Amino acid sequence: MCGFSLIRDPLPKADMQPERLALDCRGGGIATDGEAMNWPPQPLPQISKAQWRQKATDLRMRLLQLQRRLRDADFPLILVFGGVDGAGKHEMANQLTEWLDPRFIQTLAYPHPQELPPWDVPMLRYWRDMPPKGQIGIVLSGWYTAPLLSHVRAEIDENDFAAQLRQALHFEQDLVADGALLLKFWMHLDADSQRQRLQELMADPMTLWQVQPRDWAHLHSYADFMHSTSLLLHESEQAGQAWQVIDGRKSRPRSLAVAEHIAQALEQRLEKAPPAPQIPAPAAAVDRLSSVEQHRLSKSSYAERIRQGQGQLFLHSQRLRALQRSLVLVFEGWDAAGKGGAIRRLLQALDARFLRVHRVAAPDAQELQQHYLWRFARHFPEPGRIVIFDRSWYGRMLVERVEGLTPEYRWRAAPAEINRFEEQWTDAGHMLLKFWLHITPEEQLARFEARRDDPLKSWKLTDEDWRNRDRWAEYLLAANEMFASTDSPHAPWVLVGANDKRQARVSVLEAVNTALSAC
Amino acid sequence: MCGFSLIRDPLPKADMQPERLALDCRGGGIATDGEAMNWPPQPLPQISKAQWRQKATDLRMRLLQLQRRLRDADFPLILVFGGVDGAGKHEMANQLTEWLDPRFIQTLAYPHPQELPPWDVPMLRYWRDMPPKGQIGIVLSGWYTAPLLSHVRAEIDENDFAAQLRQALHFEQDLVADGALLLKFWMHLDADSQRQRLQELMADPMTLWQVQPRDWAHLHSYADFMHSTSLLLHESEQAGQAWQVIDGRKSRPRSLAVAEHIAQALEQRLEKAPPAPQIPAPAAAVDRLSSVEQHRLSKSSYAERIRQGQGQLFLHSQRLRALQRSLVLVFEGWDAAGKGGAIRRLLQALDARFLRVHRVAAPDAQELQQHYLWRFARHFPEPGRIVIFDRSWYGRMLVERVEGLTPEYRWRAAPAEINRFEEQWTDAGHMLLKFWLHITPEEQLARFEARRDDPLKSWKLTDEDWRNRDRWAEYLLAANEMFASTDSPHAPWVLVGANDKRQARVSVLEAVNTALSAC
């Protein structure tokens, strides 16, 4: 209880009011004029108990019916709550869970960013937690908490603040683009109300526990909070991701305001799906694949380089573990290009305790209810570990495109989404390397025939392989566009000539070592 | 590389031979006579390259076909490898992954127990990782590593060693009882071969990296290892869970021996499912439920005790977090008994960031492919957190029993399985409390009718609820037997009279506080 001594500090003055900002502090400019949005929010008038009973009952009925319709819809509802403690975020989550069928609602809240280790990737956790289609996720203290607190404490400048908000906005945008209905509420308390609330809670020993030392600290820096909040609200909204700013002083009117907005938005969305966005123009792609060089490697050089490479890889992996940095390797390539053999040469040098190989098959029923990146985010490694993806999220731009499993506007959007997803990973100091094992059509034919005739390998060859082969040209275009749009310094594509298996295995091993030696 | 100075220490003598033990060191007695099992293993003769090629090809074909049949079977294959580093565990995992379709094999390996925090629950990780039906899990450095190393290092005495081995054996037994085919291999190297292997690896700078300082340390304590291994092998096998001890000196014969055993066991099992075990006798159960007292609580006492209780709960939860201990709360009870309301009174006092409510519905397709405890083990909390299960693994002994969803010999086995499962959790210092909210049939009828007539609540009432109500007597018996067989000091059942909602909520809150105040 020692922290409570803070209450003896002088209280902030009542007249602290949110500033109306008209900054243009960067090139792109945070320009907050407070015109478009309800900020600071209009006070909500109190509602009598009788009125409340009537209106709340109506809203509950509406929401219950909407939740039932949502169950069969092909999108999730994501409710993001930001704002001050005590302005009703937590209470709204409890109330919605009480009003609706709780089996299909999940409240999602996250530790304060300071409690996390530096190598943590919060976005991965958000990805994993997102609700499936037909369900509701209520996000408390989510992706806006860290940027806001860091900026209030002056740990980051306005450029970094804006960059972090852009990342949050992009994450939401990826959810919305996949169909999610995302509603954002900012729950506000003015300084007077906040102070009054804390004083009332502390006056009663039974509710004293609800007041944390940091509540007073936050009240002390109320002006800073308001400044940062203004920036945040204006920087983190765009079409389809607008903030509803709610006066949080009184629980009845704020509950009605939030619930009413949810009901309206859900009704609208269930009536009419948003129009499919414009299809982004394809990236200009050179034919990188056809110019991949094919070399041969002698048996003796192979043995020597594998041994040397494996020794280095083992040492690199130990350093990686000591640094608590993680490595993700992605393997893509033509059927029969030798992904399995190349992966096994890596496994031989790595400690199985810190490694998983994730082999990607078609999504199962549960995975189909989620954003396509969800099923991969689930398998990203813990700190100091390695995960190898044998096929990956790039299926979106390969098989899903060529086989028409995903509409064009969605797979055309994939490069931007994937680049951001990978950046979230590498920005936290982790590593990502992507291999394409390339064989020529002639070599593939020879391997297919060999597989067909070898009873030990014939199971590897399926009708699908032959069908894919017929679509070589389509896959070639898809792959080249994929390289053009998703090759980046922090997550590069390595194109490996794999007509010679020995050369391919050595190339992969040595490329991994080269990348790791830079970390 | 400094650790390598260890190699200058004198090497262990070649004549160190495993002791043949005939200890009877405890009441129950570790009695190891080395008669029944191949220990120490018979040396396997070398096999020529030509022979190898022929035999390996035959075995691969057999295993491939068996894997295909396994895909459609209703059980998983779990391969447990124990033994010395260098005796081929790792290589066997890689080889099987190469021989078979790797999409349906997962290699599972775990950090050394010393690398884990004290509050870690390794068994939970094993539960979560077990392969689904039709697939293969290869366990390297699994549940035998910690007991063996601890005993070799004299960190635990023989009683604790035996207790830990029993726990491992019980875990396997639970998998086997659920249908898993579990095969255990102990890969052995004699001291001479081990020393020779390390020397050869170190003589070549290219393979030097494969030798760890701890390899030499282990060789130094070879006699201790052999002693502990003898105890381990004899203490951790029983019908259906026998060890195959394999001479690991030469890779070809050891590969064939392991693969041949897998093929034979899988063939046998696919031919003929094991007979259903005898049905355990039901526990004698008193009718505890009918004697649960029903009290009423006034509105004012209620408000007072809720406020007081929530204050205490919040403080307890903070201590729990500081101690990195976790809490699991289970809610069971009659339909309409008020579980949701009681849970919400807890939520109001807890920080959403460290809490999840897991509401249990019927198992989905993925969950049906797994042991019934798997889907709950996945949701147990991280250190310092709380998870509330709204319905739980006790469904096995309630709805699955009454509705005939699970054969009798399986739900009769559940109490022992569940007690062990819960013990794994509480043994690690975490807490578990189980609530049954009890209402009388008359009260339930009144609530059903009120729900039916209230448009805000009618969705809560389903045909299933009425059907369950018709089976009141069956559920009553099932519940009473459940309390009799799964009430334990470390994971007690709290039976709460819930005819009065206020009283029920206060009782739950105060019971949680009482339990937490002891931690």
State mean pLDDT of chain A (0 to 100 scale).
89
- The percent of residues in helical segments of chain A reads 40-55%
Strand order of the largest sheet of chain A: 2-3-1-4-5
Structural class assignment of chain A? alpha/beta
What is the succession of H and E elements of chain A? HEHEHEHHEHHHEHHEHEHHEHHEHHHEH
Q: What oligomeric arrangement do these chains adopt?
A: homodimer
Low-confidence stretches of chain A: 1-35
Gyration radius of chain A, to the nearest Å?
Answer: 27 Å
Biggest interchain interface, per-side counts: A-B, 55 and 55 residues
Q: Compute the number of helices of chain A.
A: 19
> Biggest β-sheet of chain A, characterized?
5 strands, parallel
Residue share in β-strands of chain A: 5-15%
**Number of E-type strands of chain A:** 10
Shape of chain A: elongated
Beginning-to-end CA distance, first to last residue of chain A: 44 Å
Question: In a few lines, what is going on in this structure?
Answer:
Two copies of one chain form a homodimer. Chain A has 519 residues and is of the alpha/beta class. The first copy, chain A, has helices at residues 49-71, 89-99, 122-129, 145-152, 158-177, 191-203, 213-220, 222-235, 251-271, 299-323, 339-347, 365-368, 374-377, 399-402, 408-427, 441-453, 463-470, 472-486, 501-517, and strands spanning 77-83, 105-109, 136-140, 181-188, 243-247, 327-333, 355-359, 386-390, 431-438, 493-497.
Give a structural overview.
The structure is a homodimer of 519-residue chains. In chain A, helix 1 packs parallel to helix 9 and helix 4 packs antiparallel against helix 5. Chain A is of the alpha/beta class. Chain A is built from 19 helices and ten strands. In chain A, strands 2-3-1-4-5 form a five-stranded parallel β-sheet, with helices on both faces. A five-stranded parallel β-sheet of chain A has the order 7-8-6-9-10, sandwiched between helices. Mean pLDDT of chain A is 89; it is low at 1-35. Chain A is elongated and about 85 Å long. Chain A is 47% helix and 12% strand. Chain A has helices at 49-71, 89-99, 122-129, 145-152, 158-177, 191-203, 213-220, 222-235, 251-271, 299-323, 339-347, 365-368, 374-377, 399-402, 408-427, 441-453, 463-470, 472-486, 501-517, and strands at 77-83, 105-109, 136-140, 181-188, 243-247, 327-333, 355-359, 386-390, 431-438, 493-497. At the A-B interface, helix 1, helix 2, strand 2, helix 10 and helix 11 of A face helix 1, helix 2, strand 2, helix 10 and helix 11 of B.
